[in-house]
Write a structure and sequence with these properties.
- By secondary structure, the chain is mostly beta strands.
- The protein has one domain: TolA/TonB C-terminal domain (2-Layer Sandwich), CATH 3.30.2420.10.
- Helix content is 11%, strand content 41%.
- The chain contains 3 helices and 15 strands.
- The strands form 5 sheets. The chain has a 5-stranded mixed sheet with strand order 9-15-14-11-12, with no helix packed on it. A 3-stranded antiparallel sheet has the order 3-2-7, covered by helices on one side. The chain has a 3-stranded antiparallel sheet with strand order 8-10-13, with no helix packed on it.
- The radius of gyration is 24 Å and the shape is globular.
Length: 271
């Protein structure tokens, strides 16, 4: 009996040590559609980065790119309300990088008709020598242990009646502002397509410095959003610091003051 209990405990301990999974969204609040773009029937995306902490909250949110600036603050407020099951490594919760894309779409005949290409989804994974995933999305890339990183992105594009080529460049920007081209190819957007896939893997340099690396996407030489990945020789003992400052929502303006103040109503005194 004791041996049976021991075996059960041993199996449970091994299962806990082997439990590694990515973060999972359990509550995803949608952003409020701003009045101006809603009335003007404007559509677009917002691209953000941040960190998912060990409690399942998204912290240190940074703004990367947006179709309209009016979309940004509602997007940030919505993401702050999201709830997630935290990522796990070896049965313990860990912090990971978050790449976040939010779409503002209207139920119109021209749904998805945005003015220019911009990222809609972005996932970055540590990868093996063949480019296959080695760990869940957002996990740090281990320099010296992960020979490549894998990028899987969806770039939303304005639908066109004919197929067209789009020249895509993806740069990695190091914590010290070094720029490295990871990907440069021409992708084809089919007729009436509202999105194209951009997927590739790239070698991890042995001289790449520890820290938060940024990704910059260009479509036909125009900015099209970006993201991040974390890299370190010893990720478990490295503290990743997000670059830049968090987005602070613009204060709500006070109501206008009338040019001729309305006199207050006199209240008769009681005798």
């Amino acid at each position: 009996m004791r041996r049976g209990v021991f075996l059960i405990l041993l199996v449970a301990a091994q299962a806990a040590l082997g439990q590694t999974r990515g973060a999972e969204v359990t509550r995803q609040q949608k952003p409020v559609y701003p009045d101006g773009p809603l009335k003007g029937q404007r559509q677009g995306n917002v691209v953000l980065i941040g960190r998912i902490d060990t409690g399942g909250k998204i912290r240190d949110i940074r703004y990367v790119q947006a179709t309209l600036d009016a979309f940004v603050d509602p997007a940030v407020e919505a993401v702050r309300a999201w709830e997630l099951r935290p990522a796990m490594r070896g049965g313990k919760p860990v912090e990971i990088a978050a790449n976040i894309g939010l779409r503002y779409r209207l139920q119109l005949d021209k749904r998805g008709d945005i003015p220019a290409p911009i990222l809609g989804d972005l996932s970055v994974f540590p990868a093996d020598a063949s480019g296959g995933r080695k760990a869940p999305e957002g996990f740090p890339v281990r320099r010296g242990g992960d020979p490549r990183l894998r990028v899987e992105a969806v770039m939303d594009v304005p639908p066109q009646p004919k197929a067209r080529p789009i020249h895509v460049i993806v740069q990695a920007i190091s914590p010290k502002a070094r720029r490295i081209v990871l990907f440069e190819e021409t992708v084809t957007a089919p007729a009436q397509a509202a999105a194209v896939d951009v997927r590739f893997s790239a070698n991890v340099g042995g001289d790449w410095e520890d820290g938060v690396w940024l990704l910059r996407f260009l479509a036909d030489k125009a900015e099209a959003g970006g993201g991040q990945f974390w890299l370190a020789g010893d990720p478990e003992h490295y503290h990743f610091i997000m670059p830049g400052k968090p987005r602070v929502p613009a204060p709500t303006p006070p109501p206008p003051t009338p040019s001729h103040p309305t006199p207050s109503r006199a209240t008769p005194k009681k005798k």
